[in-house]
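SAMPLE LOG
Freezer: B-3
Tube label: C17
Construct: single chain, 74 aa
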Amino acid sequence: MKLYTKTICPKCMWVKSELQQAGLEVEVINIDHNEEARQKILNEGFLSVPVLEVNGELIGDVKEIISKIELVAQ
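STRUCTURE (predicted):
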């Protein structure tokens, strides 16, 4: 799993916290420091982060991300 974030992003910190609590390994990619990743997110139609990538599927809605974390953690 990959989590696309920004340096200052309360929702990103919330999702990271949920991932840690669930004990899930995730690659965190800060789009402020990775232009290629930023372009990927923009090209997929996302205008904000966090965006979670699971098996090639990109999820940008925080509620959906939390649901996916709960599902994967089971």
